[in-house]
Amino acid sequence: MVAALTTQLVCSAAIVRSARPSGLSRALPLRRRVTLRVANIAAPAEDMLVGQPAVVPPFEGGKRLANAPPFTLQDMRDAIPAECFEKDTFRSAAHLALDVGIVAALAIGAYTIGNPLVWPLYWFLQGTMFWALFVVGHDCGHQSWSNNKTLNDFVGNIVHSSIMVPYHGWRISHRTHHANHGHVENDESWHPTVKSNYEKLDKWAKLGRLLFPFPLFAYPFYLLNRSPGKNGSHYDPKSDLFTASEGPLVETSNKFQCAWIGFLAGCTVALGPLAMLNLYVLPYWVFVVWLDVVTYLHHHGPSDPEEEVPWYRGEEWSYFRGGLSTIDRDYGIFNKLHHDIGTHVVHHLFPQIPHYHLQKATEAVKPIMGDYYREPEKSPGPIPTHLFEPLRRSFARDHFVDNTGDIVFYQQDKNLKL
To answer: Which residues form the Fatty acid desaturase domain (predicted)?
Structure first.
């Protein structure tokens, strides 16, 4: 009886698979079929006969959505219109020219006015534009700015140097992040700390990494020393971040950085230290906060307070499942200012798509993804104040993960207090 039942289920599944249509029309029916039946086929026949609830996978559902999805990366790729992968150098350059024009106008206007009441507004606006420049360099690093690698790297070096980011050093570590997103040990950006390493940190190291808002100023220190548990510097061509052949590229970016520091030194002599503090240093720290907030929220703090984002290792991890654990966000009026970087799931899986096609590509894959797409909570107005709560909540409870296990979730250190 057991053998007959198992054979019947397998044959039924094979018939369903052979009959399913191709393209977008198969996405939702396929998702429903697998969600309902795959667990039954995989379960031991003894469990089915005695009526035990082993037919439900352990992480099924939206709160801990960690099962392998019932669609493939190729399904998503096929759904995205071909034009979304086309790179338009003129359009990319126009976005950059607009950013540079706004940066220049803000600096000239604030310096000309010179009113103490104006400076705080300038710091915020200019820091936001520095963040927009970072996203341009980010696209250059993914080679999505144009089809010319030499041009991409040249523009990326200039743009990133202007905001004190080592382009090639960051580009290579960011490539590691994309190649290992969602992996507990191998991810490079905002990856979780395993319990054994967490327990080795002293109290101040824990607070500096986890107590809101201190981690929002971490980026320059990450460039210098990486994250806890990892060694190396983005400025060191001999760091284990890079291969021997990549060392000269890191040195090239360091030279661009030195040239920019020389330019800033000249401006300081010409305009005075106080002017440069207002014009560049304080906006730079606003940019750092923007970068840390946005990149952290890409991988932490779902809008639903009961949902938990899975992290993987071992055989459970794959590029596809790691990318699906990323989170899209709505940044209100800032969506276009920072080039739709909040449209992040499609970007992580298909980083070659230019930023100006991300929204169209996302709309195309949402029917494929079904429940595996976390619809971003809408901003209540121009300012995305709704993001404060998931950010605060995540830092308050997402502290470490288990040392073992191929699918793990964050745990809270309830003793962590200032």
So the answer is: 118-373
